[in-house]
Amino acid sequence: MQHSRGKSALVFCSTRKGAQEATQCLSQTAGSLGYSNPFMKSMQQYEHLREASLTCSDKQLQSCIVHGVGFIMVVFA
Q1: Domain containing 23: what range?
Q2: 35 lies in some domain
Q3: Per-residue model confidence as pLDDT tens digits over 31-49
Q4: SS3 track for the chain
Q5: How many structural domains are present in the chain?
Q6: pTM for the complete prediction?
């Protein structure tokens, strides 16, 4: 949050586990801020993310999406 200055940010992690841990940590921080969550700009955005999270089969990722945090894995072969 300090480095993104209220804008979207990408965090690169070298492993899947690292990405999951970073996502969980950011999500918990954002969730603890309640309505001060810098990742949420409106209640409409929250509702959209809540609906989107329901389509995710990964329960851990699902709980993070509602706070505006997620991860993707890119594998280079």
Answers
A1: 16-65
A2: yes
A3: 787 766 766 777 888 888 8
A4: CCCCCCCCCCCCCCCHHHHHHHHHHHHHHHHHCHHHCCCCCCHHHHHHHHHHHCCCCCHHHHHHHCCCCCCCCCCCC
A5: 1
A6: 0.71
